[in-house]
Amino acid sequence: MMPYAVIRQKRDGGAVPRPLLDSFLQAFHHGDLPDYQMAAFLMAVWFRGLDATELDVLVDAIIDSGSRVDFGAEPGRRIDKHSTGGVGDKVSIVLAPLAAALGVQVPMMTGRGLGHSGGTVDKLSAIPGFRLDLPLDTFRDQVLDLGVAMISQTPEITPLDGRLYALRDVTATVDSIPLIASSIMSKKLASGIDGLVLDVKTGNGAFMTAEADALELARTMIGIGAQRDCDVVALVTAMDRPLGRAVGNALEVVEAIDLLRGEGPADVREVTVALTAEMLVLAAAAPDIEAGRAAAEAALDDGRALDRFRRLVEVQGGDPRVVDSPADTLPRAPVQRTVGAAAAGRVVAMDTRAIGEAAVALGAGRRHTDDLIDPRVGFELQVEPGTRLERGDPVAVIHAADHEVAARAEAALRDAITVGDDTPRPRPLISHRVTRTGVEEVGPGR
Ligand code: URA
């Protein structure tokens, strides 16, 4: 195999035959192909894409580069959920114990924050003592015993993805649909799942800002699953405003616990219930989506989901007092600063990416991979598109480490939230449902 010829073929828009592409990927995995040639190949993929066979070879090479969680003939169906990333997205913390309380086995490997978007690993790490680095056999046993385990991605699973991602990150090749789809799906497939529900975000705070790209990403991931006997369903959801009110790690855990008590913001509850209903149907734990929704609503309202979360926190070494008194258990920032509206009007638009970036600047996310997260900081937003404000009405409460960063965050929030007289045009919270058989538009009732 001549690496040069593989790169040239992809660069010129041709399809690289299976054995050649496989040898190219294996050579990289075994250290026999330098980073610069892989970087050139990734850039060629960014421009030219991958056909179905090439995608298949890439997914297999990534999965086979590490261990797989093997549930063997254990009874039950293992179903996971993955979000493509957004601001204020604390759904996994609510959904994983909720689905487990309703009979689904949820082996969830969660990610760190990426750019302006938060990550479940960072949110759960705000809970004192909560361990996310469980060995794979403990992870597997806990899924079978408790119905749910939430861990961080481990280097034993898909190590090739880690190396490819590190190169993509520094060569402007992250935002490629086949590279994203293969990266996400290979990790999920290696974690031993039978089915997957995707929350594909779109809007100004999503990685896929355009709806057409979100749909294409969903179809690509569904196709990868279909080739490997893994049922995948995707909901396309709005990320043209943050999800819920809290943005920042400890603040989002508090909001997630409110939701597990049957309270909390309606939008996060709606997305959580819709995704959980899909999981229940994939797990054959509900006969249809409506029954799945009703079961999810009931388990949020009667404490079963909260109880499963309490057990999850305990088993993974976290301080279980977080469930009953989160405010006393979670770290709290020393500075709280309320941002008041500068003028009367209506919230017309929210620049969600800018809000996420402002949270990162406070310390809620990382600018460099080895930056430390400050779990205490972030925003409690008081508005959404359409909210009417009088001058001075609260727009957000900033939680910050000191007054100087709080002042900078205030300026960033003011720029990110447009108040005026125009009519807001927020995206529907859940706009599409994508399955193997096609795309349905979801009505406003959902
Ligand atoms: N998340 C991943 O795991 N991989 C990508 O490529 C993008 C987002």
Major sheet attributes: 5 strands, mixed
The value of Rg in angstroms is 22 Å
The secondary-structure class comes to: alpha+beta
Strand order across the largest sheet: 1-4-5-13-14
Separation of termini?
Answer: 52 Å
Mean pLDDT: 96
Name the helicity range: 40-55%
Shape call: globular
Number of strands: 14
List low-pLDDT spans: none
Counted by DSSP, the helix tally is 18
Small molecules bound:
uracil
Residue share in β-strands: 15-25%
Give a structural overview.
The protein has 446 residues and is an alpha+beta fold. The protein has helices at 3-11, 18-29, 35-48, 52-64, 91-101, 120-124, 136-146, 159-170, 177-190, 211-227, 249-260, 266-282, 289-301, 304-315, 321-324, 326-329, 352-362, 403-416, and strands spanning 79-83, 106-110, 148-152, 195-202, 231-238, 246-247, 335-340, 345-350, 378-381, 388-389, 394-400, 417-420, 430-435, 438-441. Helix 1 (3-11) runs parallel beside helix 3, helix 4 packs across helix 9 (177-190) and helix 5 (91-101) runs parallel beside helix 11 (249-260). The relative contact order is 0.14. Bound molecules: uracil.
Give a short summary of the structure.
This protein has 446 residues and is α+β, with helices and mostly antiparallel strands. The chain is 46% helix and 16% strand.
